[in-house]
Design brief:
alpha/beta, Rossmann fold, Arc Repressor Mutant, subunit A, 4 domains, 7-stranded parallel β-sheet, 6-stranded parallel β-sheet, binds adenosine-5'-diphosphate
Length: about 600
């Protein structure tokens, strides 16, 4: 059977031998004029789903993208493939914009990226009319479609007006795409973009190449340092912090330690943000220390780790933020440290904000789900997917809980002691003070409040400081205790605590592991699998250097030349001719012609 036009284009232009997941069905559906809503995780391969049908249909494909800063890279990547792509946004000077416009009118552009605010102007809509008449519009792709939802932090009001596209051009197919997994946002996209009739393509949201780990915060900086030294000494990654101040302090500290770290948050000057983002994208091994302001649409494929020094606000946030790791499908780490202090301060922050009561309750519930995840003893992949109403086939065998199963213990008695200590000392002290009472430590503070005379003084000596700390953390995380805003975060009982105190229910607690480090063997097997010892191989370094040289010459990020996965295949297959090179995944006709010889030369030098 001969290959379909879509398959031929996939091979020739993109250099891929097969479609992934639902790509083929999506491409065929849209290419034949259907509307589609595509829900696919980051790294799933969404771009192809609109790029291929745009090339298969006649006329120009219009791509609505919210991120001006990234359009250039997307267009560069397509041009490298030999596709005639262009973008229009406010960053272009008048002359370039005019040239693009003329090329568009001559029918020379196959894919046009436009910012929503530009697209919606009267003048652009009338331009679209002309284009439709003269050369045709292949499709409208609405990327990052979750921007229509005002509940996420990516809300873009202009997205809500995009329904005008369908009203004015009812016969042009639309394809909306997002990596947002939660149901309410999905429903909102359908409603706001008028996609009730569109066929929905929902992929699994599992990210099998991401290894999730949650460690107890002890000394966060030291823990981060140890994690990076052991596993990511030369890798690009993101370190998320909650506040702008912490971002700056952490970035400065990392620089002092010799890491190539940069800061990113919404309070920085736009020019600094832009410059730091560019360095992160264009150079190798840069670490971005950032607030959640950094992230949407960061399509750098080889982010090898995402580290959280503070808790995200919800499971949705955690999934999105960690999802920026390993877009290229190669192994990546999602690593987080957290402790009692984080639970208390996150709860306080939500409670103390001036959002309406109803919304606050919703946010508390979302935080609860995240805390439940942190404290969970089950497979991380399973826990995440279950949250998004999807079943995972079995244990992943690679997250912290699968590799080092967590023991649980009957914590009923300890919890009762802790709760009763909170109650008897007046429900306004922090965990440190409460633990002193339980352990029978007559500190100055304990004696000042005469807490050494309480019946709970010294009743908890069968557990040590760390174990009590773990008990309190789990009681707060599970909602038996809450932080009292009026009492500077002192702990007080909630309604849930009553049945436990009265002995009507039991509670099982997790026994915190001594260490969250992976053994050498665990690290090695993963490393071997993915990079086959590449980092120590001089040929790998030479291939990377060649890629960097070509990228610099053309002022594009290195992954626009070849992705790591393509470069790895070149390293492992060692193609000896252009024909052999063309069989490498990610080497299409245009890239073969442009770079085939350059990389063959590097290989030859090493063969000698
Ligand atoms: P998303 O936009 O969903 O995050 P991308 O479109 O950036 O994902 O694709 C993720 C990665 O997978 C990219 O490196 C892309 O080149 C690669 N990719 C996509 N489709 C295929 C395929 N059919 N075969 C091989 N690689 C693919």
């Amino acid at each position: 059977m001969s290959a379909s036009p879509a398959q031929q284009l996939l091979e020739l232009t993109f250099g891929y031998s097969a479609f992934r997941g639902q790509q083929e069905a999506i491409v065929n559906h849209v290419a034949s004029g259907g509307d589609a809503l595509v829900l696919m995780p980051t790294g799933g391969g969404k771009s192809l789903c609109y790029q291929l049908p745009a090339l298969l249909r006649s006329g120009v494909g219009i791509v609505v993208s919210p991120l001006i800063a990234l359009m250039q890279d997307q267009v560069d990547a397509l041009r490298q493939l030999g596709v005639n792509a262009a973008f229009l946004n406010s960053s272009l000077d008048a002359e370039t914009a005019r040239a693009t416009f003329l090329a568009l009118m001559r029918g020379e552009i196959q894919l046009l990226y436009v910012a929503p605010e530009r697209l919606l102007t009267q003048s652009f809509l009338s331009t679209l009319h002309d284009i439709e008449q003269r050369i045709g519009i292949a499709l409208f792709a609405i990327d990052e479609a979750h921007c229509v939802s005002q509940w996420g932090h990516d809300f873009r009001p202009e997205y809500r007006q995009l329904t005008v596209l369908h009203e004015v051009f009812p016969s042009v197919p639309r394809i909306a795409l997002t990596a947002t997994a939660d149901m309410p946002t999905r429903n909102e996209i359908v409603e706001r973009l008028g996609l009730q009739e569109a066929r929905q393509f929902v992929s699994s949201f599992d990210r099998p190449n991401i290894r999730y780990r949650v460690a107890l915060k002890d000394n966060a900086r030291k823990q981060l340092q140890a994690f990076l030294e052991a596993e990511h000494s030369n890798d690009a990654g993101i370190v998320y912090c909650l506040s702008r101040r912490k971002v700056e302090e952490t970035a400065a500290w990392m620089q002092q330690q010799g890491w190539d770290a940069l800061a990113y948050h919404a309070g920085l000057d736009a020019s600094i943000r832009q410059a730091n983002q560019q360095r992160f994208l264009r150079e190798e091994g840069v670490i971005m220390v950032a607030t959640v302001a950094f992230g949407m649409g960061i399509d750098k494929p080889n982010v090898r780790f995402v580290a959280h020094l503070d808790l995200p606000k919800s499971m949705e946030g955690y999934y999105q933020e960690t999802g920026r790791a390993g877009r290229d499908g190669l192994p990546a780490d999602a690593w987080m440290v957290y402790g009692l202090g984080d639970v208390v301060s996150m709860r306080q922050m939500l409670e103390g904000s001036d959002t309406p009561e109803e919304r606050k309750r919703l946010e508390q519930q979302k935080l609860n789900a995240l805390l439940g995840y942190c404290e969970s003893t089950a497979c991380r992949h399973q826990t995440i997917l279950r949250y998004f109403s999807e079943e995972h086939p079995g244990d992943c065998q690679q997250c912290d809980n699968c590799l080092h199963p967590v023991e649980t213990w009957d914590g009923t008695e300890a919890a009762r002691m802790a709760l009763s200590c909170v109650y008897r000392s007046g429900q306004r002290f922090g965990a440190g003070h409460l633990i002193d009472i339980l352990l029978g430590k007559a500190t100055a503070q304990v004696t000042r409040f005469q807490h050494n005379t309480l019946s709970t003084f010294g009743i908890g000596q069968s557990l040590n400081q760390a174990q009590w700390s773990s008990v309190f953390r789990q009681l707060v995380a599970a909602g038996f205790l809450e932080a009292d805003m009026e009492a500077y975060g002192g702990l007080r009982l909630t309604a849930l605590a009553r049945p436990l105190l009265k002995g009507e229910t039991n509670i099982w607690l997790r026994r915190d592991p001594q260490t969250s480090k992976l053994s050498k063997a665990e690290r090695a097997s993963r490393h071997k699998e993915a990079f086959a010892g590449a980092n120590d191989d001089p040929l790998w370094q030479a291939l990377k250097a060649k890629r960097m040289e070509l990228a610099r010459e053309q002022e594009v990020p290195p992954y626009v030349i070849f992705h790591d996965s393509t470069l790895l295949e070149i390293l492992n297959q060692r193609p000896g001719s252009l024909t052999e090179m063309s069989r490498i995944s990610g080497v299409g006709a245009a890239k073969l012609e442009r770079y085939g010889d350059a990389f063959l030369e590097v290989l030859e030098e090493f063969a000698r």
